[in-house]
Amino acid sequence: MHTIELILKSTPMPLSVQRKTEDEAQALYQKLLEAMRSSVNQIIEMTCDRQPGKKVAIMTTEIAAVMITEKAGTASTGKPAGFFVMSE
């Protein structure tokens, strides 16, 4: 399972959706990158392969960062994958 996490400009918590295959995850990641590079404001709706009823729609101008990770089958360190934010 691959997780695509998004950080929005005015939201402290990341949004995430999962994809079963690496190809699907990479395709969504590239779609989000293209939307971030575009100057046209649009809405992207995403669904989650892990939770089929989960849907999220976001304005592309609000995306600050995108990250893709693969869930490993090894023991976890207790820290979820994600972005690290430092503040003063």
TrEMBL record:
InterPro entries: UPF0367 (IPR020885). The lineage of its organism: Bacteria, Bacillati, Cyanobacteriota, Cyanophyceae, Synechococcales. This is Uncharacterized protein. It comes from Merismopedia glauca CCAP 1448/3.
